[in-house]
Amino acid sequence: MTQAMTWAQTLLLCFQSELQAPHPQPILPEHVMLRPGQQVTPLLSTNDDECCRGLGWVRVASFSGVRELNSTDFRDAMCFSQERVLTLEMGTARCAPTPGAAGLPSEDEWTALALILDADMNAMERAVCCAFAEADDVAVGEYEPFGQDGNCIGATMTVRITMEACC
Q1: 91: closest CA among 11, 21, 24, 161?
Q2: Looking at residue 99, what is its pLDDT?
């Protein structure tokens, strides 16, 4: 297993824990998972809806070198620079208020959802502190809301980790 996946799993364990009680709307640990791909699209079937049951994830968003192609810095040229930047993404998806065809969501429903998403953001921040308390080069990136798309609404947060590559 790569160092990138080790960091992703460490963050995942912390995130699973932080999305439990006393969170106002916990997400079961089995619904907080590693997800691959360019983005996470919550799934819907005839028997299940990832948004409405609550979905949390961690994914490897990118992994890149630090050294520029035409760099004149030859300190680590033998190893093509040993530093890499790993970007992990955490996210949650929730069910948007849907009162049916005859109505619109109330102010109280939207407020309740905003407070749940705020608790999710707080869980993301605590998960970063939990996972990377001993790490030196970690930076929290942007928290970015998404949706409403269909019945899903949520947010993502990125974490950038500078780490050594194995040459």
Answers
A1: 11
A2: 78
Residue type, 90: M
Q: What's the pLDDT tens digit per position in 26-73?
A: 999 999 999 999 999 999 888 989 999 999 999 999 988 776 656 555
**Left (φ > 0), alpha (ψ -120 to 50) or beta: where does 135 sit?**
beta
Closest among 35, 17, 40 to 27, alpha carbons compared: 17
Q: Give me the residue label for tokens 């799993």.
A: 9
- Please identify which residue in the block is written with the tokens 């019945």: 151
DSSP E strands: which ranges in 26-133? 32-34, 55-65, 83-95
Q: How far apart are CA 141 and CA 88, in angstroms?
A: 9
Q: What is the pTM of this model?
A: 0.88
Would you tell me how many other CB atoms lie within 10 Å of the CB of residue 100? 6
Please state, in angstroms and rounded to a whole number, the distance separating the CA atoms of residues 24 and 119: 7
CATH code of 3-164, in short, is 3.30.2000
Q: Domain residues of the chain, as ranges?
A: 3-164
Whose tokens are 């192609």? That residue is: 69
Strand partners, 84: 65, 163
